[in-house]
Write a structure and sequence with these properties.
Layout (H helix, E strand, L loop, with lengths): L1 H40 L2 E2 L5 E10 L2 E13 L6 E8 L2 E6 L7 H7 L23
Antiparallel strand pairs: 1-3, 2-3, 3-4, 4-5
Protein name: DUF3301 domain-containing protein
InterPro entries: DUF3301
Pfam families: DUF3301 (PF11743)
Length: 134
């Protein structure tokens, strides 16, 4: 009986080590993907803070797959810390969430192109000259 329990304990320990190794390899892939996305979007990845936050089941092509959520912190201008998130299925990025930049009105005028490059028209609040209710 003792040999059987030792074998079972050894199998459980081996499964835990294999799971830990698999998750650490997946985390390294997530770190590379977070670096690539930050470089592409002009953000700075802070402190290699990529860590597993959540697991969920997702149906892809009729099969249930495990989707991993990794959280990390980025900086827009070097003086702030903003949260970011990426979802991965196996080795592929399935979703990404990065902070947005909110421009002040005087910065907005400097960034706005002279001719619109798309069919999106920016809306700005109207200033009222009279105080009547319409």
């Amino acid at each position: 009986m003792s040999d059987l329990s030792n074998l079972l304990l050894l199998l459980v320990l081996g499964a835990v080590v294999a799971l830990w190794l698999r998750l650490s390899v997946a985390r390294e892939r997530a770190v590379r993907e977070a670096r690539r996305q930050c470089r592409q979007h002009g953000l700075q990845l802070l402190d290699e803070t990529v860590g597993l936050r959540r697991l969920r089941l997702r149906r892809i092509d009729g099969r249930r797959r495990i989707e991993r959520c990794y959280g990390f912190e980025v900086s827009i201008d070097g003086h702030d810390r903003e949260p970011g998130r990426l979802w991965m299925v196996d080795d592929t990025l399935s979703s990404l969430s990065l902070p947005t930049i909110e421009l002040l009105p005087h910065e907005e005028a400097a960034v706005r192109p002279l001719a619109p490059a798309s069919n999106v028209v920016p809306l700005h609040p109207r200033t009222r000259t009279d105080h009547r209710l319409n």
